[in-house]
Design brief:
By secondary structure, the protein is an alpha/beta fold. Helices cover 39% and strands 22% of the residues.
Length: 654
């Protein structure tokens, strides 16, 4: 066996895995895309040929090993194949959040020293072009979708197919080049750079090696029984480590199919048509799906509403037990079977969950009611816990040990320990990142010399070996009376209510807890329509007394739940206001993954926070806003501040 043949057979990089699929399953579907209502497919042999031509095309531009290439756009087969082509030449793909504004994109392009940018369409090309003069290393921009690009005349702007055409000629002249370059790759090489969400400052470039991703993905596939017959829908941002693991790493390790939706607006329709075997979504998406179901049921005929309500009661009683193969009385089994025919089966089919073998959620805590709803109708929904620095996976709930209050047990080869002093969760695994790009100081602060990673999350390991996450360690504080204040925990509890889209709580160093609320416009808007309540905008609806009454009731329900936990009973929300605008990533208030940037929120709304701790019940505001059409305006309103009922601590029954 030659040195090249020996290297290619090692399967320690993704291009080598790609070649292996091209040999062993050439006619199996690797990628799909919905385009103009039609599902287009690429089998593994076609993917190999497309990757080869693009890689050779990049080589004709003078591409060198370790060059960084930005990938910008929605989930598209061409962009996934671009990642494979870049890696085939020893380059490093740098996926960028497609909804980033130009300035956010410019920071990543400049910091990563990106040489090429491969973008989806005109919108993304325009953003890159607008900041190109501030990215000194950027020499070429390659676009996939030619629509709208006809009159662009920049000399460094090229069509994806044009680069592939150049690649065909380069390949003819250099027939051994492609395989030789792939053979040079090693598992220890950096295979991808993913930027953190930047909740506390500038995003950091997390360098992950092929070993990090491949070993972790193989372990996840083995534990969760992923095979080449599985099918997933790739709709989450390519810049997010979860998509990189599930839609890229695990797919290339197992050989299963990855499908891309037509657009972000058609995800649920495409999900229903595709019927994947696995589905991952943050709690918010599962919340939105359930909200849509309940809204539709409110509009259904009375008899349908009664049937739905009755059999959901049956599901609540028996569904989860049946899913977990626990004993259920015969009559309850029969009633559940009837419900499966009349309600659960059609509902799962409508949601696109008819073939789901396993579903995951993570990133935030999920509400117990929401979690139990999906499990009760037969969806094997489980929680996982991870980080970009871990190549996603730290823990996953085993199938027979699913508990809404935990995030599961360590994945294979992962060790977890709790810092006794700070209660911070630390882990060590094959997925631990190489380091932060150009930031050795941050790397040393996060990763110890012996490979342990500080998560920044406070938690503990329960008697069953499951990890329980309380909050971000740095965010956990105390009220003036010594009561623990865990803002993220409180906010997630508030967001369990379908009417609350976002919440920010305050209380560290204060006498009591207060909250900002963003209402869920879909849920509250539907309620307003059913009650013939007219409104003209978000701020108009949010400021209605009727809406305040509903949100007050939701908060008080959460307070009653907190009262049953002696350690948290003192952190019930005492006062709240409904913000005049949605917290927005474009305004810097949220990260691109939807996490609150607390420092920015605290600074921007310090006068509102101060008012919550005063005796005021009205506060005038005047704020600049940017509307969806790009126009700017000014909102003038009087925000209301309302008190809520706080309940006495009640010991849980043993």
């Amino acid at each position: 066996m030659t040195d090249r043949q020996d290297s290619l057979s090692s399967l320690d990089t993704f291009p080598k895995l790609l070649l292996d699929h091209g040999i062993n399953r050439p006619n199996r579907v690797a990628l799909r895309e919905k385009d103009l209502g039609i599902w287009l497919t690429w089998d593994w042999s076609q993917v190999v040929e497309n990757v080869r031509s693009l890689a050779c095309g990049l080589a004709s531009f003078g591409f060198e090993r370790e060059d960084k290439v930005a990938i910008v756009g929605d989930n598209r087969p061409e962009l996934y194949m671009a990642m494979m082509a870049i890696q085939s030449l020893g380059g490093i793909p740098v996926p960028v959040y497609q909804d980033s504004v130009a300035e956010e994109m410019q920071y990543v392009l400049e910091h990563a020293e990106v040489k090429f940018a491969i973008v989806e369409n005109q919108e993304q090309a325009d953003k890159v072009l607008s900041v190109q003069d501030r990215c000194p290393n950027l020499t070429s921009i390659i676009y996939n979708d030619p629509r709208g690009m006809r009159h662009y005349r920049q000399s460094d702007l090229f069509a994806y197919k044009e680069v592939q055409a150049r690649g065909h000629q380069f390949d003819k002249n250099n027939p051994d080049y492609f395989l030789d370059e792939i053979a040079k790759g090693k598992g220890a090489d950096v295979g991808v750079m993913l930027y953190t969400s930047g909740t506390t400052g500038r995003p950091k470039g997390v360098m992950l090696s092929y070993d990090n991703v491949i070993i972790t993905c193989r372990n996840a596939n083995a534990r969760e029984r992923f095979r080449d017959t599985d099918d997933v829908l790739a709709y989450l941002p390519m810049a997010w480590v979860g998509d990189h693991a599930i839609s890229y790493g695990q797919a290339l390790c197992a050989g299963y199919s990855v499908s891309c939706p037509e657009s972000s607006d058609t995800v649920m329709i495409d999900l229903r048509e595709l019927g994947p075997t696995s589905f991952f979504a943050p709690p918010r998406i599962f919340e939105n799906i359930l909200t849509n179901v309940m809204v539709r049921m409110e509009d259904a005929a009375p008899i349908k509403r009664k049937i739905f309500a009755y059999f959901m009661g049956v599901a609540k009683k028996s569904g989860t037990k049946l899913l977990e193969s626990k004993p259920v009385p015969l009559l309850d089994r029969i009633m559940y079977s009837i419900g499966k025919i009349l309600v659960f089966g059609p509902l799962r089919d409508t949601l696109g969950f008819s073939n789901i073998r396993i579903a995951y959620t993570g990133g935030e805590a999920i509400g117990p009611e929401l979690f139990e709803f999906y499990r009760s109708i037969g969806v094997n929904l489980k929680q996982l816990y991870g980080q970009t620095e871990a190549t996603v996976y730290v823990t996953i709930q085993p199938d027979d040990e699913v508990n809404v209050e935990t995030v599961g047990t360590p994945v294979p080869d992962c060790e977890i320990k709790i810092d006794e002093a700070t209660k911070e969760v630390l882990y060590r695994s094959p997925g631990v990142f190489v380091g932060y790009y150009k930031n050795e100081e941050a790397t040393r602060e996060t990763k110890t010399e012996d490979g342990w990673v500080h998560t920044g999350d406070a938690g503990y390991i329960d008697d069953d070996g499951h990890v329980r996450i309380i909050d971000r360690a740095k965010d956990v504080g105390k009220l003036n009376d010594g009561t623990m204040f865990a803002p993220k925990f409180l906010e997630n509890k508030l967001k369990f209510h379908a009417n609350i889209r976002e919440a920010v709580t305050f209380g560290d160093g204060k006498d009591y807890v207060t909250a900002f609320i963003n209402i869920d416009l879909d849920s509250m808007g539907n309620w307003a329509e059913r009650n013939n309540l007219n409104y003209g905008s978000y701020v108009d609806l949010a400021n209605r007394d009727e809406v305040y009454a509903i949100i007050k009731g939701n908060i008080e329900e959460s307070n009653r739940s907190l009262a049953a936990d002696p350690s948290l009973a003192g952190s019930q929300v005492k006062r709240f206001l409904i913000l005049h605008k949605m917290l927005d990533a474009d305004d810097g208030e949220l990260t691109r993954t939807g996490k609150i940037r607390r420092k920015i929120v605290f600074e921007r709304y310090d006068d509102l926070i101060e008012a919550l701790y005063s005796d005021k019940d009205l506060i005038p505001i005047e704020a600049k806003v940017t509307f969806e059409n790009g126009k700017e305006g000014v909102i003038k309103a009087e925000l209301k501040i309302r008190d809520t009922e706080v309940y006495s601590s009640v010991q849980k029954a043993s």
